[in-house]
């Protein structure tokens, strides 16, 4: 921050006043990137975008609005999972273009520069998009492929995209291992070089354990800098590109060891920590290494179950200064690093994962100015990406009832300019209001849920849809959710329960899910329905259940476990047979740990698999599944549909030939929403 002209106080805080002015008017409609102008316009230099103020732009109270159609909710977000380039002039990420999601690079200031656009390969998903210097973008691809003998497994690879030409270079695609995409380091000086940990083979005796390669992205060529070591599956490097530590596992995966070396790359690796997963022990997990020392920054869980961020000496494992402690009942979601990975700038917690608790004083000051400017609007301001010198940033503005928009903020002159709205049909007008509620499960455990009330309707005696999340190790928060909002727009109260076993509430809450899959985890969902009925919010005789992935499992199992509770169900990409999907680990390295993790969730997979309980289902079931899903096999829904039909049950199956697990095509997402809307209207009219 020193190279930006001194401290905030040294600049007289003029930039803070400019930021406040920018925030006051930035909710207004303005040109969107890829649709019209880029942000560097003369009109932006006064610190505010053109148009009305924030309150007016967020909707006109009392003015009735036409009910948005499914195509409005199905819009693919303009920008997702991306970042600002180190020099702050371009963005790269996943763009919603022409009704589908593509990998793209856009110049924010020069509209004559041709954008780079790359379709995601068939049967493949893009996990993330990262900049390497200002001239290359790295993309991690993941696919589910046959491994022989009826088994399938994930294979991951990297591609590098040259910004200037759009040239794509495959990185280590000649290797025969499953995973060749673990990026440990990127060059600090802007050079197109990275460290990648990669397996060379799928077989234990032929290069199964990964080696670390230093790769030049321009050529795709490189050299090995760390040879494979028996048992080591995960490597870590410091900001200088030195491999500092690795985690090794026994074949069962139950025993783990941390090996470590100092800052000198010629030092040997030695074991400094051990852990047994059966005893719920955890290894020391360094997030970054402080340059030239044996000190690192790592996360710990206190005896009270609270996540903490500490400085630690790797050799002695003695902790030093505590940098951050998550509030009680929350977890550390992720940390924000400086561009050179030499410092932790901030920490996001699970209660608001898009919000960062900034440890860097200037970033904290900027965040506080943003928050103050929108305090009365119910808007969340997320600083989502920073330039290398932190003089420019991407800022996301959103509300739980609005898709929000992406902005560019210049610290130097305090200007804020909108890049684009995420949904150009719904824009930033509020749809249905969202709030956090809490209720007691039947055993007294407090459950938090997200509740969406249909816009313009009183929350009283409403038809209701229970919408459990996927995972199950996940969490719903009060943020924009296109599926919940679409269902609410059709007149339904929507409740998204964070049942026991969900992440985000600490280790103790997560472990309450052990042995309870299909049991208390499912009861927590139905107890949410009972609570809503007791509060007079919902009509329990007009209830349905809808969910995706694990939520699809919970839908099918909810119909079987509690027949008569729901009038209908919709399973989207759901798991019907737990054993086939999550418990076949025979022959896999670390199979013991994987099996333990799932067996902890339920003692009998067959007993809580919907496929084995079709005879108990009485309510109509709609199945929706994309045939290009690489996360949950489409055979899960195929089998469930076949079993339901054979049993004479009411079932319909929407099989979408081009849809993936996340429905990243507008056509598929609209088809899904239309099918859900029609099913609910038929079996549980609002």
Automatic annotation (TrEMBL):
Gene3D superfamilies: alpha/beta hydrolase. Residues 1-34 form the signal peptide. Transmembrane segments: none annotated. Residues 483-683 form the Peptidase S9 prolyl oligopeptidase catalytic domain. The keyword Glycoprotein does not apply. It is an enzyme of class 3 (hydrolase). Keywords: Hydrolase, Signal. GO terms for molecular function: hydrolase activity. It holds the Pfam family Peptidase_S9. It comes from the Bacteria. InterPro entries: AB_hydrolase_fold, Peptidase_S9_cat. Its EC number is 3.4.-.-. The keyword Hydrolase applies. SUPFAM superfamilies: alpha/beta-Hydrolases, DPP6 N-terminal domain-like. Coiled coil: none annotated. PANTHER family: DIPEPTIDYL PEPTIDASE FAMILY MEMBER 6, SERINE PEPTIDASE S9 FAMILY MEMBER. This is Alpha/beta hydrolase family protein. It comes from Novosphingobium pokkalii.
